[in-house]
């Protein structure tokens, strides 16, 4: 179980590019890894809880056995004071039996406590590593999303550069410029094709204006 976290660290770190090469979605894969880590942590928590419960049970039995040893010692002393040597002997015999039991239970409790302490440390390491992976996952997800966005933008720009509509727009622009050139040419042709009568009419028009100006001056109507 605890080895799983090392595997996840390797995948999340050095194998991100491999996931991209295989067309796997890094965001979904990272979320999946985190869910697996969460499941392992819950499983580890359950194991630690069982071990702690076992440790407490053995501690309670060891304490009870030690208390019974002390009790038999006090009872033996009380029996001697009362002059009942046989009762004292039986109390000491049971005390000796309880001492052996207390020793075995204490040894079992110490081993259980050592195992529980180690499991607690492992669980704390798993939770800390999970938190580190959570932070790293958020960073990697942001990087993956940014890379996907850049890829989409680059593809869009490439599509626009080669798009048929853009080429059509350029053709229409050329056509408008051609229309404008034709219009300017027709204006030049119209100007150069004036007849002699047109030019004389223009000249006559100018003579009337001069005559009108002279008449106004004569009559003082300027």
From TrEMBL:
Residues 34-82 form a coiled coil. InterPro entries: PspA_VIPP1. Residues 137-148, 163-181 have a biased composition (Basic and acidic residues). It comes from the Bacteria. It holds the Pfam family PspA_IM30. The keyword Disulfide bond does not apply. Transmembrane segments: none annotated. Keywords: Coiled coil. Residues 137-203 are annotated as: Disordered. Belongs to the PspA/Vipp/IM30 family. This is PspA/IM30 family protein. It comes from Gracilibacillus marinus.
